[in-house]
Amino acid sequence: MNYNGATDFCKSIGMELAKLDNIGLQKSAEQYLISQQITEKVWMSLTCVGLSCQWDDGEILDWANWENVDEPRYECVVFEEIFAFTWRSRRCLDNYISLCIAPAQPSFSLLSGLYNFYEASKECQAIGGQLAVLNNPVAMNRVMNELYDMTITNDIWIGLYGNGTNFVWQNMAEEVSYTNWNTTVPQTHTGVAVVMTKSDLTWRERQMTDRTDHTLCQVNYLPVVLGMTYADAEAECLKSALHPALMRTQEEAIIAKNALNTPK
After folding, report:
1. Of 178, 175, 133, which is closest to residue 157 (Cα–Cα)?
2. What digits encode the pLDDT tens for the residues 230-259?
3. Start and end of every C-type lectin domain (predicted)?
């Protein structure tokens, strides 16, 4: 199908043509295509006019994985395994397959229960999600609107924590850029994570071992899946204050399978 056809197909199944705007999503898409033995050229949701490129949602391209320095030469963009998943521009009327992903906008769920940061992470995993990533003002405003009429009795864990040198988002270790601190930026980056305050939902740091009454989870996200040994996988999980998934029931296995399977 051509580019427009690929875009329409993804929308017809409630998804979006892939937006690979960081190395984590790029690697996740690569791993998915390898696991499904897909070697064909695959459309992504990037279009270019001259040297100026933007994603379908209007965001200007600021991270790229072009094969050659003279790209882009055409209006639309594909990638494929034979070229190490680097990007190449193609005519939009060419026919390739689509890579669809869940919409970038997640669903949020507020959990109540006395949890520390690690326990809060596990509670979100148990419903097939993760701690909320609020890395732009649109997401933050949306959460504030959704929580407006709810009874908030204490701070709310979100998915931001200190890795020793900086604050990073738990999903892909993405360093924080957009922030909503209630006073000044915290100077401590070890053993702390971030909560939204009860009073106005601004952010402050707390010890990861502290317990608070609320946890904000998000679902519908593209997980990062990299090929590695169990020991390496465990080490990567621990960097993000997580543990490898424990699937004790068939229902938990189905949740994991649904999270990992993105339709072609």
Report:
1. 133
2. 676 667 666 656 666 655 444 445 555 555
3. 1-101, 116-205
- What residues does each domain of the chain span? 3-101, 107-219
Q: For the structural domain made of 3-101, what CATH number should be given?
A: 3.10.100.10
> Which pLDDT tens digit goes with each residue over 138-166?
789 889 998 988 889 999 999 999 988 88
Asked whether this chain's domains 3-101 and 107-219 adopt the same fold, the reply is yes
How far apart (Å, rounded) are the C-alpha atoms in residues 262 and 264? 6
Query: Does the domain spanning 107-219 belong to CATH 3.10.100.10?
Result: yes
The answer, yes or no, to whether residue 207 has pLDDT greater than 50, is: yes
